[in-house]
Automatic annotation (TrEMBL), chain B:
Cross-referenced InterPro entries: ABC_transp_permease
Main location: membrane
Gene Ontology molecular function terms on file: transmembrane transporter activity
Transmembrane feature ranges: 6-32, 44-63, 69-90, 97-115, 142-164, 195-217, 223-239, 246-266, 272-291
Bilayer disposition of the protein: Multi-pass membrane protein
Localisation per UniProt entry: Cell membrane
CDD domains assigned to the protein according to its UniProt record, in alphabetical order: TM_PBP1_transp_TpRbsC_like (cd06580)
One Gene Ontology cellular component: plasma membrane
Keyword tags: Cell membrane, Membrane, Transmembrane, Transmembrane helix
Protein name (Swiss-Prot/TrEMBL): ABC transporter permease
Length: 369, 308
């Protein structure tokens, strides 16, 4: 913020006059809320226009979207249930972003995490549920973690672009999953939908008392807060941000960039792997192709909309969880295809990226220079 | 219908036929991306463009009865997506890789949305030329039924190679990709050059998509493209931004992608899904072998964000 901000603010007469330094101090933070918010409103407007061309009333659309996402206690629970994996897959993009890396393979880490967690549960059948659950968490996190570490390692040691390699690994993960659930791990009783055997009702992680929202939401919240503390309040996070800002400076001050990349990628992948474990242990109860529901891809959007900030990911994930929760209602009440949620997500993504051009350019937040 | 007398020869023959059939989308997307990347920008959104191209080609072919109008529509759709990508990237401080990811999601979403009513009906397909008339063996004839789009793609590769090397347009695109400042100093608008390069790239990628829905596999459904677009983008990198190498690499990829169905046709089904992942594994393997952490790739346009 420039020093002239205060005067121009008074001249414009927008800010609270009692505290002329207000915008000077918080202008940047206001931008981080105002600009993505405006992008969101713009995207909703365009989507409404698109729906109008399709012959539906945009006002109905907005109403049902609100109603299906946040209108009732039932829809809130649906929204929060979907937000849980989104928080975790968004972290898979947001953590490497601190190092300047663009990882878009959260979907792959989610699938591998789900497979690893299911394998752990099936191997430990008969053990106490708490033992099985802990083993599932560990297995899911290690599986997903190693999957993204692969992309990080290839970037660090072979110079392979991490964006492309992580996306290729999504397709490879999907092939591995399909191979295992239709072959070696298939439950012979699953006829129409090839699946693994069930992990057992006793081993499911259940719901938060008084709600239908499973404990995965708490996992997600804890992970997001932990990631925030790690990035902004530890030496490790500081080192990562230095390396992300200027890799040569980081090398000069003696940071081991390779180790940073591998560790951050492991944490990122383990977070998406945990999302896979949650989907198995709280929703599906087994691994099958249903797990490839696109949480990994929506997570990329969540991370970008939250500007890669782990705390901001929480409300953004709830918002996008709400949009996807309202998809069913849009299908039933307005007769829109199920892909309409994807279209809206795509439009939001485009608007959010285009709005990057606005930072530092909003007159009343910046002041004349 | 495996001919017993052919035995295991069925597999290489099917891989050969597959290399020609399956490689066409790879070829068009990689040639298109080659033009875009030579101008200094990367468009990861071609996966979405491919799917949009497939959907619009099928839709227009169904409505008009002419598959070639469908191909044209796919190209125009692709060019519009290219223009959208270039337009957003022209704004200051916008990352072209991120825009690509966004358009990948938007393109697939929009194609699924608009393509919902197209899953049932059957559209007119593209014709094929029968180069196997001399043979009595059905597998040979099947392998040599070649689509015109493939031949067009094969012709575009050397044409592009020549154009990059000798024409004014080729030089302009390469200048924009090597040094935006130099292009500006010569009085050209870098943004305009990149806009055109991205639109042409999108046009070709859209046509690649039309091949998917109008020839092979030859129908529209939501699982039509699974990563061919992104694989083709990776392919450009190890083809060293050389259109002729793009052609050979696409053929290799088509062969790899045909391996799963070919093995299935002789009764080897156990690793079906793993063989289907062959193109992705191959891409990753080649990228691991050819990339290096120490130097930028030879032939890489200096302005490209992915190699800097």
């Amino acid at each position: 913020m420039t020093t002239e901000a205060a005067e121009s603010v008074e001249a414009a007469g927008v800010a609270p006059a009692a505290d002329p330094g207000f915008l000077q101090r918080y202008g940047a933070s206001i931008e981080y809320i105002l600009i993505p918010g405006a992008a969101l409103v713009g995207a909703l407007g365009v989507f409404g226009g698109f729906i109008a061309l399709y012959g539906k009333n945009p006002l109905d659309l907005y109403f049902y979207m609100y109603y299906g996402a946040f209108g009732t206690w039932f829809s809130w629970q649906n929204t929060l249930t979907r937000a849980a994996p989104l928080i975790l897959t968004a972290l898979c993009t947001a953590l490497p972003a601190q190092l300047g890396m663009v990882i878009i393979g959260g979907e792959g880490a989610l699938l591998i995490g789900a497979l690893a967690a299911t394998s752990a549960a099936l191997a430990l059948q008969g053990a106490a549920p708490i033992v099985v659950q802990i083993a599932m968490v560990i297995a899911g996190m290690i599986g997903g973690g190693l999957w993204i570490t692969l992309s990080g390692g290839l970037r660090q040691y072979r110079g392979v672009n991490e964006t492309i390699s992580s996306l290729l690994l999504v397709y490879i993960a999907l092939a591995v999953l399909n191979h295992l659930v239709e072959g070696p791990m298939r439950d012979p009783a699953s006829l129409n939908k090839p699946s693994t055997r069930e992990i057992g009702a006793a081993n499911m992680i259940g719901t938060i008392p008084g709600t239908d929202v499973h404990w995965g939401l708490v996992f997600g919240l804890v992970a997001a807060v932990a990631a925030y503390i790690l990035i902004y309040h530890t030496t490790f996070g500081f080192a990562a941000r230095v390396a992300g800002g200027n890799i040569r400076a980081a090398k000069i001050v003696g940071l081991s960039v390779g180790k940073l990349i591998l560790t951050v990628c492991f944490l990122a992948g383990s977070s998406a792997g945990l999302a896979g474990m949650i989907e198995v242990a709280a929703v599906q109860g087994r691994t099958n192709a249903n797990l490839a529901a696109g949480y990994g891809f929506t997570g990329i959007l969540v991370a970008f909309l939250a500007r890669q900030n782990p705390l901001a990911i929480i409300p953004v994930a709830i918002l996008l969880g709400g949009i996807s929760a309202s998809g069913g209602l849009l299908q039933r009440r307005l007769g829109l295809p199920d892909a309409s949620v994807l279209v809206l997500q795509g439009i939001i993504f485009v608007f959010v990226l285009a709005s990057d051009a606005l930072y530092g350019r909003i007159g009343f937040l910046k002041g004349k220079s | 219908m495996a001919d017993a007398s052919l035995g295991l020869w069925t597999v290489p023959l099917a891989v050969f036929g597959g290399a020609i059939r399956v490689s066409t989308p790879f070829l068009f997307v990689s040639l298109g991306e080659c033009i875009t990347e030579r101008s200094g920008r990367i468009n990861l959104g071609l996966e979405g463009t491919l799917v949009m191209g497939a959907m619009s080609a099928y839709g227009i072919s169904y409505l008009s009865g002419s598959p070639w109008l469908g191909v044209l529509a796919a190209g125009i759709t692709g060019a519009l997506f290219g223009a959208l990508h270039a337009g957003i990237c022209s704004l200051p401080r916008v990352n072209d890789i991120a825009v690509g990811i966004a358009l990948m999601l938007l393109g697939t979403g929009l194609a699924f949305f608009l393509g919902k009513p197209l899953i049932e009906p059957t559209a007119a397909r593209l014709p094929a030329i029968d180069f196997g008339w001399w043979s009595d063996v059905p597998q040979v004839r099947a392998a040599l039924r070649i689509n015109v789009l493939f031949l067009i793609g094969v012709a575009i590769a050397p044409l592009l190679y020549w154009a990059f090397k000798t024409t004014r347009w080729g030089l302009l695109i390469r200048t924009a990709g090597e040094s935006a400042d130099a292009a500006r100093a010569m009085g050209h608008s870098v943004l305009l050059i990149r806009l055109r390069a991205t639109m042409v790239g999108g046009f070709l990628a859209g046509i690649g998509g039309s091949f998917l829905s109008l020839f092979y596999p030859g129908s529209w459904n939501e699982g039509l493209s699974s990563g061919q677009g992104i694989t083709a983008v990776a392919l450009v990198i190890f083809a060293r931004w050389d259109p002729m190498l793009c052609l050979w690499a696409s053929l290799a990829f088509g062969g790899a992608a045909a391996l799963g169905p070919a093995l299935q046709s002789v009764g080897i089904t156990s690793g079906y899904h793993l063989f289907n992942a062959a193109p992705y594994i191959l891409t990753l393997a080649i990228m691991i072998i050819t990339c290096s952490p120490k130097r930028t790739l030879t032939g890489a346009p200096a302005e490209l964000s992915i190699t800097r």
